[in-house]
Amino acid sequence: MKIETPVVAGTLESSDVMITLEPGTGGGIEIDLNSTVEKQFGCAIKKVIVETLTELGVTDTKVTAVDRGALDCTLRARLKTAVFRAAGQEGSLCQED
Amino acid sequence: MSRRLRRTMLFVPGNNPGMVKDAGIYGADSIMFDLEDAISLAEKDAARFLIREALTSLSFGQTEIIVRINGLDTKFALLDLEAVVSTGKATIRLPKTETADDVLACAEQIALIEKAHGIEIGSTKIIAAIESARGVLNAPAIAVSHPRLSAIALAAEDYTADLKTSHTREGSELYFGRCMILHAARSAGIDAIDSIFADVNDEEGLRNETKLIRQLGFDGKSCINPRQIRTIHEIFAPSQDEIRHAEAVINAYEDALQHGSGLISLNGKLVDRPVVLRAQRTLNFAKAMGFGREVNLDE
Asked: Structurally, how many domains does chain B consist of?
């Protein structure tokens, strides 16, 4: 799936993460991570981002993630929300299972 | 006859990750994640994704998990049902229930989703929220409409708006609705859950309202702030005298069963079925407070 226009999901509140997806430049999934726990969990957060986007068929996009201590499940939820918004779908959430 | 206690049902906005992850730590009997009124139209999708991910990833211990979906008359309801039912981990709270057909329509969709996802058919329960005069008048039919229905709940704010009045601290305007819902629930053998008490800073008002609904016979009360949980549990807790008496009743009942006696007496007084059932309920509330024992009576 191709990201055509920028989309945003999530907030900057504690325990949340704000995800912005922008059209890719042909370089795969590029991640700009800003996290309060980047030193400890930066690699793990990026792994979840890549895995989730790949599962959803997104292979070329620029991801900006501003993390406020989100759990993995919150990160996945915000990524899925952003991708479905990019696709212009309300989202049948079980399709990707 | 062992049943889950529902003294408190804590409302948690479905799009707040911090509140969702911490929802289990406050000791509520049930947590109700809200996809309806607490979520703006623009964030319905985000809340639905968040709750689905939370249900599949987080553990809330023994706490009952409920999700309030959007109304069946909205485009969100079926997506909400699919997202929640497919996890097999939550009860559905159906808002704005006005007729038995509303429950049947919801139950039909749930069955389709359960079948599609290999979830045991019938395992997903429904709580019907009554929010209008029509719903209150149809409460007896709603309560017996489907085996999935495990409780009916009063939503006082919408109900009083429909009555063209308001929810007062004293609550006299709710008396008819509460009694209708309670009788419908008891007649159907399901739970009756009272509305929220909206003023979180008015502990005396919460105490008075909880005492009233406990005396009416309700199983519990919805709440909107963790601070309200302890107060409600305190009021639903039996006294030491009540526990001692209930234990004596159950001991007498079990002794009579053991000796094949049909007649049960305690201190010279006849102990009949209503007394035993009341004692069972008392001890199960005591057990939930962390003392005493759970009682399961053979019918």
From this structure: 2
A82: domain CATH number is 3.30.230.10
* Structural Rg of chain A based on CA atoms: 12
Give the residue numbers spanning the domain of B130: 8-236
Name the closest residue on chain A to residue B116, using Cα atoms. A94
Domain containing residue A47: 7-86
**Closest chain B C-alpha to A27 CA, distance in angstroms:** 28
| Chain B residues closer than 8 Å to A76 by CB | 53
pLDDT in tens, chain B (299 residues): 346 789 999 999 999 999 999 999 999 999 999 999 999 999 999 999 999 999 999 999 889 999 999 999 999 999 999 999 999 999 999 999 999 999 999 999 999 999 999 999 999 999 999 999 999 999 999 999 999 999 999 999 999 999 999 989 999 999 999 999 999 999 999 999 999 999 999 999 999 999 999 999 999 999 999 999 999 999 998 888 889 999 999 988 888 888 877 778 788 888 888 888 889 888 888 887 776 666 666 54
Residues B260 and B209 in one domain: no
Check CB contact of A12 with chain B, cutoff 8 Å. Answer: no
Q: Which of B236, B252, B278 finishes a domain?
A: B236
Q: Is the same domain home to B52 and B187?
A: yes
Give the CATH number of the domain where residue B64 resides.
3.20.20.60
Kindly report the backbone phi and psi dihedral angles of residue B85, in degrees, each rounded to the nearest multiple of 5, phi listed first. Answer: -65, -35
| Cβ atoms of B40 and B48 closer than 8 Å | no
Any domain includes B298: no
User: For strand B30-34 and strand B8-13, is the pairing parallel, antiparallel, or unpaired?
Assistant: parallel
Residue of B nearest to A19 (CA): B46
* B31, burial (CB in 10 Å: exposed 0-12, middle 13-18, buried 19+): buried
Task: Give the integer Cα–Cα distance in Å for B214 and B28.
Answer: 17
CB spacing of A15 vs B21 below 8 angstroms = yes
ipTM above 0.90, yes or no: yes
**Of the partner residues A15, A77, A92, the one whose CB lies closest to the CB of residue B53:** A77
